[in-house]
Design a protein that fits this description.
Elements: H1 42-57, H2 62-71, H3 76-88, H4 94-107, H5 112-122, H6 126-135, H7 139-152, H8 154-158, H9 163-176, H10 181-189
Helix pairs in contact: 1-3, 2-3, 4-6, 7-10, 9-10
Length: 190
């Protein structure tokens, strides 16, 4: 049985030295360091606690974190300050998150266009999307990814007796997974 903050054997899930201490964090101001000994603004402090709780579950983009904080009733200004503080403390890094997200989607068998659309939905900047996808796998790897996705559905496609309809179904399936027409054409010719 899993208890929040405890592992199955009763040992704390996170070592105490790795849990961030946010008592001494205040909103970033011009020419002021983040860490101070004064008590921060109570709304900022509670927003920062909420952000840390959100970020301990999984990685988020800056846009996602800001949106979640605003949905929880935190003002836009405080949410932006918390986002800036999290970036400064290296809790948030859009470039690292984007690389991780691209690798995850490609490992799941999605193509270039699907990944691009999913990244826009997550709120990544277009320049970052272009940069990360430019460093991603070449078309030969995308063909291999499409082939693996196709192998998983092979039994479904084999049920169709008409080769023309089978080719159409394969095309629709791969297109919905974000593969380009050239990649699909390469696979359906074989």
């Amino acid at each position: 049985m899993f208890v929040f903050g405890r592992s199955r054997r009763g040992i704390p899930a996170f070592p105490k030295h790795k849990i961030p201490n946010i008592k001494h964090i205040e909103p970033p101001k011009k020419n002021r360091p983040i860490m101070t000994t004064q008590d921060p603004d109570p709304t900022f402090k509670s927003a920062m606690e909420t952000a840390v709780r959100i970020l301990t579950r999984r990685n988020h983009s800056c846009h996602e974190l800001r949106t979640k904080l605003i949905r929880k009733g935190i003002s836009r200004e405080v949410a932006t300050e918390v986002q800036a503080a999290c970036e400064q403390l290296n809790y948030l890094d859009d470039r690292r998150m984007a690389r991780f997200y691209v690798d995850e989607l490609q490992a799941k068998g999605y193509g270039f266009y699907f990944v691009q659309k999913a990244m826009r939905t997550k709120g990544f900047a277009q320049e970052l999307i272009d940069l990360i996808l430019g460093q991603a796998r070449p078309e030969s790897d995308e063909i291999e990814t499409a082939r693996r996705a196709l192998e998983k559905k092979q039994r479904t496609f084999e049920r169709e007796k008409d080769p023309g309809k089978r080719r159409e179904k394969i095309y629709r399936y791969l297109y919905s997974r974000g593969f380009s027409s050239s990649v699909i054409a390469t696979l359906t010719r074989r």
